[in-house]
Amino acid sequence: MSYQEILFPFLGGLGIFLFGMKYMGDGLQKSAGDSLKEILNTFTSTPLRAVLAGLIVTAIIQSSSGTTVLTVGLVSVGFMSLRQAIGVIMGANVGTTVTAFIIGFNLGNYALPIIGIGSILLFFSKREKVNNIGQILFGFGCLFYGLKLMGAGMAPLSQLPQFSKLMIEVSHFPILGVGIGTLLTMVLQSSSATIGILQQLYSQGSLAMGAVLPILFGDNIGTTITAVIASLGASVAAKRTAASHVVFNLVGAIIFTLLLTPFTAVVVSIANLFQLNPAMQIAVAHGLFNVSNLLIQFWFIDKIELLVRKIVPGKDKSIEFKASNLNEAIIQSSPVLALSQAKIELLQMGEYVMGAFESTKAYYEKQDDMDMENANQYENAINDMDNRLTEYLVKLSATELTISESHEQTMMLELTKDLERIGDHCRNITQNINEAIKLEKKQKAKDKKEGKISHRDTVILYDEDLVDLFEKVLKNIRDSLIAFENDDQEMAAYMLEREEQIDQMVKLLRKKYISIMNSGKGRAADGVLFIDTASNLERMSDRTIHIAKYVLGERYGTETISIEQSVNPIIQQ
After folding, report:
1. Complete DSSP assignment for 232-259
2. Which of 39, 52, 363, 543 could bond to 371 as cystine, CB 3.0-4.6 Å?
3. What is the spatial distance between Cα 491 and Cα 474, in angstroms, rounded to a whole number?
């Protein structure tokens, strides 16, 4: 048999297998909805719960890499601590063994009918839930059909002397097998694919158990590359999370490579006891390895944390966000207490808005990328709180509230949106500053090429009047939160006076920008910075005035209207 007859079915089968894995995982993820992030974000308060959360999410999406990348993202934005993330990663390693057990059932003969059923559900139904089930079945069928093609392609390998020689070397030198497993998984970006290949080779008798296990250990090291890639350019905390994934899997591979002989004996004993088929034997070995590794290293989570802090030095500037105060259980039993909790949450959201604004202001003054990253972290937290608080307040509105309680609930619903929009404007400004910096760098490069000399000292146009505008808007944000918390009408009234000053400053800044441009000193970056930034600051201030007016008793937007009532004016013909 030619190499082409081996290679083509193998590559085609591998492609279909990987597609099936991803497509099935996407379908499972859609079916689970937004609960995956919620599981990781909420149910990780203790190391054991973090492990269980990682296990459950990985079992749902059929990808330990996907869980790890999601965890790196949550750590990066401050929603999860490093210690919690280590627990999740340990659980993800166990959760990924589910795929090997699924493959162990050997449903290759039913792959095409499963694909057919999945296709019918996908293309002949308009219901989203049915489509998701169809996607899961289609991906499931592709997974087994790909395995069948790979198996057909790899069947002649045992007859090749070069392959037989390599497997003998692996049996004698386990470290070689670990290296092969690591590289193969790094290339395929899927530990499940590597396990699937091992199951096929072992089923055909091309590999002995002594050669399979070292490759399987290396497979766990190779899967860490996804988390490493995801952490590139991220925060120090995210890099440490990726490093903990590498440390956990590397230590596990070392321990079980040293214990290869007794571990092999245990796997063989279990296989003989339960009369397992070859593919299921590999699944059991994979599961036993990951569970044992978890049981060994679970007690050293704090030590792993200390180690990765040394491996990845530097100050962790990731912002730690507080847990939610919202408790849905009391909405029906005690609406008054629920309103009180919502107010605490709203004030917490206000603190994040303050943090976002201060980071945005610092980014304008210093152009430090860390300030922009902090502003983005706060913005993500603000959006998350907006979703949770809005949902909570809407559920609260369905209970029996007094007139004053109903007004308070409506007010907080409005103020939640005001704060969320201030966060959006902060992001707009950081993007404006970033865009202005890029434009200025391009302009300076062009000037240098043309032999012109730039007389500007700063990267972007720094203006004291714009800094003063930042300061006044910052005071309005701070005072609006104080006025809301303490029902301080005097402070709210003073904010209205300051708003007039802010409006006047914005008008003067626009005139100043025109003067700069007309004088010939202006640059392309100045327009992006001055006009757009000033406009966003003005809109932020408008949002704080909305809060002040609520405190003063001007309950705009709370009038009762019918759902069916049109808000469009009647146009007389």
Report:
1. TTS-HHHHHHHHHHHHHHHHHHHHHHHT
2. 363
3. 14
